[in-house]
Amino acid sequence: MKNELRIFCPATIANISCGFDVLGVALDSVGDEMVIRKVSKKGIHIIKLEGQDLPMETHKNVAGVAGMAFLGESDYGGGFEIEIYKKIKAGSGIGSSAASSTGAVWGMNQLLGRPFTTLKLVEFAMEGEKLASGVAHADNVAPALFGGFTLVRSYEPLDIIPIHNPKELFATVIHPQIEIKTSDSRKILKTNITLKEGIKQWGNVGGLVAGLFTEDYDLIGRSLVDHIVEPIRSILIPGFNEVKASAIASGALGCGISGSGPSIFAFSKGEDTAEKVAQSMKNVYKKIGIDHDIHISKINVEGIRKIN
Amino acid sequence: MKNELRIFCPATIANISCGFDVLGVALDSVGDEMVIRKVSKKGIHIIKLEGQDLPMETHKNVAGVAGMAFLGESDYGGGFEIEIYKKIKAGSGIGSSAASSTGAVWGMNQLLGRPFTTLKLVEFAMEGEKLASGVAHADNVAPALFGGFTLVRSYEPLDIIPIHNPKELFATVIHPQIEIKTSDSRKILKTNITLKEGIKQWGNVGGLVAGLFTEDYDLIGRSLVDHIVEPIRSILIPGFNEVKASAIASGALGCGISGSGPSIFAFSKGEDTAEKVAQSMKNVYKKIGIDHDIHISKINVEGIRKIN
Fold first, then answer.
1. Where is the GHMP kinase N-terminal domain (chains A, B) (predicted)?
2. Which residues of A touch B202 (CB under 8 A)?
3. Domains in chain B, number
């Protein structure tokens, strides 16, 4: 068995419109690289971290914390060295911490001959999410580990449902270079909603899941609606309404906040449309003078993968 | 073209657990019969109504009101005679009014060569629902007209999504002979819910729709949960908790309130289990001395149909 793996750890979109806290998806063209290496020295040792200014101490790093959760339930007597090459910016809203924590546990599991199920890896990786945002949420780590669209049906017990991935679906994600803390973004949410709003939301979740299974792009678009969280959180993202309007006008099926922002995602049918949508989103931020990164990606149906 | 049709109008289960106000399904072994006849005399004429004590005046009868909504948008210059043979008890919670209003408009549409879409027929039939309960809801009329499981994704605009129907899924429905008015049953609902409860509910709606599409019976069962409405409404139904517990103990995938009650439905994989579940549900009402009807049915995938 090999002692070392180099892997690609995808960025992910969580809180997909109506699917707040439950629906996420893995991307293909943006993600980190990691090297995971079996060593005799016990514990998790982060020996390299490039691309972002993040702590390398095991207990302060999401990969370290997730890795320790893994080791805590493993029979393995040794340890792991981890190298992290960040390409996803921390705080961008496309699952930077999830990429690192899932990459660590997925790689470790491979190197040990897969003693744990993918669901169990989600649990370990959630410990990293807890360190990053204070909440052990699963809606980024689940798509990173399972690939494609995933539903977190329940937390107690944890139940992750892989959803079908329409072949022509592409994501465009724009990251305006402003900072929003996940914890702030949580604080402004209302703790109560009306039953009426709830019914609309779960009608759309049902429609979105049905649209994904039947590859009905029009239904996917009609269902990408969020009456509850987006109207509040979008206030924190300058230009959100203009970006969304221009994405839709350029042919996007739907558009919303990625994670807790500030990134904004749009889904399109076909890569050409996704590129037009990207151009229109960029134009908005150029006009109001906000620096931004943009990504166009097909859906990543396999999740984390080995690379050479 | 024929001038007369005899049709079967299925009973339906609405408010399927987590799918409150959005998910319904059509049954196969219980429903009304109707005869719809083209006549030269303008208007809707209910000339026979057997089986239940309900008003026959056009404007007081759900089939009459739905039929008039149909005629109001039709080019047809004549009228229709309607005979209704009720087998579904009014107020039982399995779509008695929906069966009559959908039967009327479906039959009329057939006899005129189908000038209207099925979605348009849903709109006409909703006028009947409005007469019956004060609310123009679509979650019984949609499955009666489309067949199978249907999702009311949105009311404005009206958007009905047919869901896949697992082949081995059977419904057991027990109707305890007590009276609950739909309007009373609506009044006791809370108008606000917590965001946390909402998230659980839409996670389950996503899981239920995914389970139906993938014919994953276990997932269907895990998703048949309602944290919001069932805990409140079940108080109005004597023996509800015992009936539910005995259904699950007998192998049902899940169990909940049909419509606004008092009927209770359970879903099972396979007819044998559905029968065992029926027996266990009956035993509860026998023990506490409440008269009851019971129905075991496969899913009716075609909805209303012609009979000879």
1. 74-148
2. 18-20, 22, 198, 201-202, 205
3. 2
